[in-house]
Amino acid sequence: MPNNLLDQLQQSEVPPAPEEIRRDVHVRLNQWLLIAQTAGLVFSAFGYAALQFTSAVLGLTNFTLSGKYELPRSDQQDNESIDR
Q1: Assuming Cys at both sites, which of 47, 58, 60, 75 could form a disulfide with 71, CB separation 3.0 to 4.6 Å?
Q2: 68 touches 60 (CB < 8 A)
Q3: According to the model, what pLDDT value does residue 36 have?
Q4: Domain ranges (residues) in the chain
Q5: 77: how many CB neighbours lie within 10 A of its CB?
Q6: What does the pLDDT look like over 35-81, one tens digit per residue?
């Protein structure tokens, strides 16, 4: 009989997990993965796209009403330094 714990564990036989448990785990895990990935898509990707679209529509509305297209502040500074 080996004295080392690892040797004892190596010699002991472990029965495989029943198929029902594996299937149940996969079903529950897949549901949570689907929910998490869908929530991530809705809150991050769609939110970012909606923000960009809103920014473009507001820029178009501002241009239509005022006749001027104003660049964001950092772009104006870059363009002013290029023009000089």
Answers
A1: 75
A2: no
A3: 93
A4: 24-83
A5: 11
A6: 999 999 888 888 899 999 999 999 899 989 988 877 766 655 555 55
